[in-house]
Amino acid sequence: MSLKDWIKESNNIVFFGGAGVSTESNIPDFRSDNGLYKKQYPYPAEVMLSHSFYESNPKEFFEFYFNQMIYKDAKPNKAHLALAQLEKQGKLKAVITQNIDGLHQAAGSKTVYELHGSVLRNTCTGCHEKYTLDQMLEFRDESGIPRCPKCNHIIKPDVVLYEEGLDERTMMNAIQAIAQADLLIVGGTSLVVYPAAGLIRYFQGKHLVLINKDKTSMDDIADLVIHDSIGKVLSESVELYD
């Protein structure tokens, strides 16, 4: 049996994805040779994206954030489009993503659980006014820190930084979706970031499929492992069901 066959026979598919899903949209991942963690900065990326660094060095935090985490020109790729198509067919019930770029929604996916938040949503730390990414960029002061025009407090991205906890409701929705799935497709993730990687243990369905260019620590528990381009694999697997 192939992934195509399993998709055809399944009616409750869940996709769980990581940074590798968006690399084909020219958004760098974290741990590959060209990833964010390999670039040279005054501090490691994990430090610069931490809550304590944001609190103590807001100027440097936002300089790094806007230069390395924002890709306004990125467009959905074949993987995003294939998943949106599966949802339209009624087969895919949820996308669970560790990405913060909003590309699943841009492709047309409706049920998306963003474990690490989104760069498209931003909140004033003072009056809690909500701002779009464009507004946040517009309201930067002379030092590059985005400030609320109503109360002058910092506008913080609704992104989960290191040292911050994941949103409890989002996690519960993701767990419920995985627990109810008959086919779980995991793609573009090294499965080393917890608690997100631990979500797989809630899967009790028929088939677990891992799609990733490199090996993962969970390859041995999967029913099918594909080391290839996720966009290629997913687009080929759903094209027969247009």
UniProtKB/TrEMBL annotation:
Pfam families in the record: SIR2
UniProt-annotated location(s): Cytoplasm
Listed InterPro entries:
DHS-like_NAD/FAD-binding_dom, NAD-dep_sirtuin_deacylases, Sirtuin, Sirtuin_cat_small_dom_sf, Sirtuin_class_U, Ssirtuin_cat_dom
Cofactor(s) named in the record: Zn(2+)
Its Enzyme Commission number?
2.3.1.286
Residues engaged in binding NAD(+):
19, 23, 30-31, 98, 100-101, 116, 189-190, 212, 230
Q: Does the keyword NAD apply?
A: yes
Give the residues annotated as active site.
116
Predominantly, its location class is cytoplasm
The source's domain of life comes to Bacteria
**Where on this chain does nicotinamide bind?**
30, 100-101
Q: What does this protein do?
A: NAD-dependent protein deacetylase which modulates the activities of several enzymes which are inactive in their acetylated form.
Question: What is this protein's record name?
Answer: NAD-dependent protein deacetylase
Q: Taxonomic classification, please? A: Bacteria, Bacillati, Bacillota, Erysipelotrichia, Erysipelotrichales
